[in-house]
Design goal:
heterodimer; A: 510 residues; alpha/beta; Rossmann fold; 2 domains; six-stranded mixed sheet; 22 strands; 26% strand; globular; B: 323 residues; mainly alpha; two-stranded antiparallel sheet; 1% strand
């Protein structure tokens, strides 16, 4: 094995009572791509933040290139040749690419000279690593894939030899992710060391040389990627066997429950986001909408669930129209049997400052079951919440706990439990497993399929192609506000990826 | 000719009245661009005005007065920084507290030190900043049109007036042409980006607040040592808030800030000039209405005539490293 670029020895870190990292030992070989996988909250990001000087370890030692290193600030890390691409980009949105690259590494007190110097250096880096970006473009006008390149360029400009990427593909299209992987391989060929943090096992298998698995703050295993499997890694991550693809029988589609016809929706800026879309969902089937985020899926969901005004078109629920003027009463839609699990559970689905039991009836608080005269029937609400907690395995099992204190996966289960337990005829789910761990994904998928088998119509919108393929009976692909194709669940990833990138669509238009 | 003279005189007082607004507005620009809301501009101007007049009258030196105004004003800015940067307190609460402390302490100290009901002694020549007469101002005063413009509008102001207007291009240059400016703008937009780039967010924001303190100190000194011959209680009279309104109106840009402050200064000058004199068609307008005019206009302008003003994205939010 080559010389170690980084060695972590006995790293401990606690936040209050939470032990985020316990006695972590890790060795990363120079010139390799090393993956670190684990569920949310397993301590991956904390460990990397310690390495980047964002936090200090409570105890333990870091060695960089064999030398003990004291990394107290990001500056120390940068000086040691460690660069980091954060999950949420650390870019100033209204600055240019060049300004972002030089920020903190300006060679001169006057910008003109710093920028002139940076420009030629940046051009060299772009050529060398295939990282083309217009240096004078404004960040917020760039697609996320290019923003990420700017982050990589920032690290390289500072002379990074070791590049840490935290969940780099979460925001990318499959094509962009492939491009990123090519860049990473090129970096590796040039002798750089890459540390890839992710919870997507497919990516680990595709690109890494070595992979370490974290669970609940500890490092449970390190494997050579060639000698492991996705199943083994998933089991190591969760601590038990996991079904990565939920078993399901044939769909038994019945009558049309929801009919969308010629729907057109504009966003707040007046841009057409949903462009003349028509489709039906029948009882007993799951229809999946695939697409790269921002191609109109959000607006489609909002229009159907009555929280966004549509410009034209109609949506029929059980043969009766839904008010699309923006004046629709979501409460009335619930009464008619349309349940909605919003994409953004933090802003739309939950009141994080409320107790769990309060959130578990949100929107259904007018239901006589939860009322005693004009007042809320607290006992009924709490008992109801306890039932849902038991049924959906929500942890911790405490209906009085503040919702913000639940993990993302459990928050999602709270929303799902609330909407599913109302026994709706139509269930609309946006990003059912965004930010949810492998174990909980399995559970949520099983639940959705159970709904289908009970004869409900389910609409799933997700940017995770795996999820769409594993759940859907029919797959609709959205691109630029239109449905550019319908495929069966057997459609290959490559085929769907091309549709999502609008390739076929553009060819047809020419 | 009467009309022309009236216009020149109104414009002249526009300049005089907009100077404290402009200095305060630029002061606010430094802190808000760095992501610190500063509703305490008013209070810092007030302590600056008091410290300036008090020191000038005790030490018989205008420049010592100015220095003391800046010193005390910066000290108050540092209190705001300590509360809102170091201790991540609410910036509005901290700013309001500073305004209250300023209003109360200037009166108490003024009464304790000078026994003139909260005033400082009237400043003597040499203790104030005198008007600077530009060469030839007297000679060409009688030349039609150009004469009054040169001798009244351009010449005949105190050094602080010229300083205030020079601060406009200077601030622009600092913000958009220097490393410090780049970092300052960055920290107001995305402090996490600055932090991960290895720059101290706290120190950067403190430095921005020092700039704020210096400028509010000069603004205060202008009020008590140029516009007035001494400190009078509550003499800032809401100028700090108007400056904040002008800052939003100017969309946090220095040159826009100058025009916004000139507009507010002009309305102020106009309201003074038109007091008691009947307007054509409308007739006599109550004094109170004229005095309220700048504020009414502020509300109207801010309510929708300026388009969308996008504040620095991280404004008002204390920086906490995320887990």
């Amino acid at each position: 094995m080559a010389q170690a670029a980084i060695e972590l020895i006995g790293i401990n870190k606690s936040f209050g009572a939470v032990r985020a990292n316990r006695d972590i030992n890790l060795e990363i070989a120079r010139g390799t791509i090393h993956g670190i996988v684990g569920e949310n909250g397993a301590g991956k990001s904390t460990l990397m933040s310690i390495l980047y000087g964002f936090y200090q370890a409570d105890s333990g030692e870091i060695r960089v290139g064999g030398q003990p290193a004291s990394i107290k600030t990001p500056n120390d890390a940068i000086a040691l040749g460690i660069g980091m691409v954060h999950q949420h980009f650390m870019l100033v949105d209204n600055f240019t690419v060049l300004e972002n690259v030089i920020l903190g590494a300006e060679s001169d007190a006057l910008l003109k000279r710093s920028i002139a110097k940076a420009r030629s250096e940046l051009e060299r880096l772009e050529r060398e690593y295939g990282l083309e970006v217009d240096p004078d473009a404004i960040i917020e006008e760039l697609p996320v894939g290019l923003q990420q390149r700017v982050e990589i360029l920032k690290a390289l400009y500072r002379g990074a030899e070791i590049l840490i990427l935290d969940e780099p593909t979460g925001v990318l299209t499959p094509a962009e992710a492939d491009h990123l992987f090519r860049i990473l391989r090129q970096l590796k060929e040039q002798g750089k060391t890459v540390v890839l943090i992710t919870h997507k096992l497919r990516e680990i298998m595709a690109i890494t040389d070595t992979v370490s698995v974290m669970r609940q703050g500890t490092m449970v295993a390190t494997r050579e990627t060639k000698k492991t499997t996705v199943e083994e890694l998933a089991e190591l991550m969760v601590g038990r066997r996991v079904l990565l693809r939920v078993e399901k029988g044939e769909a038994d589609a019945g009558a049309i429950k929801l009919a969308v016809k010629n729907l057109t929706v504009k966003d707040t800026r007046g841009v057409t986001m949903v462009d003349d879309i028509s489709f039906d969902i029948r009882a007993g089937e799951i229809v999946g909408i695939a697409g790269v985020a921002g191609n109109g899926q959000s607006e489609l969901l909002e229009a159907i669930s009555g929280i966004r005004r549509a410009v034209s078109g109609s949506v029929m629920l059980d043969g009766k129209p839904i008010d699309l003027t923006g004046a629709a009463d979501p409460g009335e839609l619930r009464d008619r049997g349309l349940a909605h699990v919003p994409e953004d559970r933090h802003h739309v689905g939950l009141v994080l400052a409320f107790e769990e039991n309060e959130n578990s009836i949100l929107g259904y608080h007018d239901d006589p079951r939860y009322l005693k005269g004009p007042f809320l029937n607290i006992d009924a609400i709490r008992n109801d919440a306890k039932d849902k907690i038991a049924k959906y395995d929500i942890r911790p099992a405490d209906c009085r706990l503040k919702t913000a204190n639940f993990s993302g996966g459990n928050q999602q289960k709270i929303v799902l439990a609330r909407e599913m337990e109302q026994d709706p005829g139509v269930l609309i789910v946006g990003q059912p497993t965004r930010g949810v761990d492998v174990g909980a994904i399995e559970f949520i998928h099983k639940r959705l399929i159970a709904m289908r088998d009970q004869g409900k119509a389910v609409l799933v919108v997700s940017v995770e192609l795996d999820e769409i393929r594993s759940l859907s009976d029919r797959i609709l692909v959205m691109f630029a506000g239109r449905i550019v194709g319908e495929r069966g669940p057997e459609a290959s990833e490559g085929e769907l990826g091309l549709l999502m990138a609008g390739v076929e669509h553009q060819e047809a238009a020419q | 000719m009467d009309v022309f003279n009236a216009i020149v005189q109104t414009l002249d007082s526009t300049i005089r009245l907009s100077v404290p607004l402009l200095l305060a507005c630029l002061a606010g620009l430094y802190s808000e661009r760095a992501g610190i809301f500063d509703i305490g501009l008013e209070g810092k101007m007030l302590v600056g005005a008091f410290a300036g007049a008090a020191a000038a009258s005790v030490f018989h030196s205008a420049f010592l007065g100015l220095g003391m105004a800046i010193l005390i004003s910066v000290a108050f800015a540092m209190i705001h920084g300590f509360a809102s940067i170091t201790h991540r307190g609410n910036q509005i609460v901290s700013g309001v507290a500073i305004n209250f402390i300023a209003a109360g302490s200037t009166i108490i100290l003024g009464q304790a030190w000078f026994q003139q009901g909260g005033r400082t002694p009237a400043l003597q020549p040499g203790e104030r900043f005198e008007a600077i007469t530009w060469p030839g101002a007297g000679a060409i005063h009688d030349v039609p049109i150009l004469g009054p413009i040169y001798s009244e509008l351009i010449s005949g102001h105190s050094i602080l007036v010229y300083l205030a207007f020079l601060m406009v291009p200077f601030t622009w240059w600092v913000l958009f042409r220097t490393r410090f400016g780049l970092r300052l703008r960055a920290v107001g937009e995305n402090p996490a980006a600055v932090d991960t780039a290895g720059i101290s967010v706290a120190w950067l924001r403190y430095r921005a607040l020092i700039c704020t303190g210096v400028l509010t100190g000069i603004a205060g000194a202008y009020l008590s040592m140029v516009q007035n011959g001494g400190f009078v209680k509550d003499m800032t009279a809401g100028k700090g808030y108007i400056a904040l309104a002008a800052l939003i109106f100017a969309k946090w840009k220095p040159v826009n800030a100058m025009f916004a402050c000139l507009l507010f200064g002009f309305l102020d000058a106009l309201s003074i000039r038109l007091q008691g004199s009947p307007l054509p068609i409308i007739g006599k307008v109550p004094v109170q209405f004229m005095q309220a005019l700048p504020y009414i206009l502020t509300v109207i302008l801010l309510a929708g005539f300026i388009g969308k003003a996008i504040p620095p994205r991280a404004g008002g939010v204390p920086y906490v490293k995320e887990r």
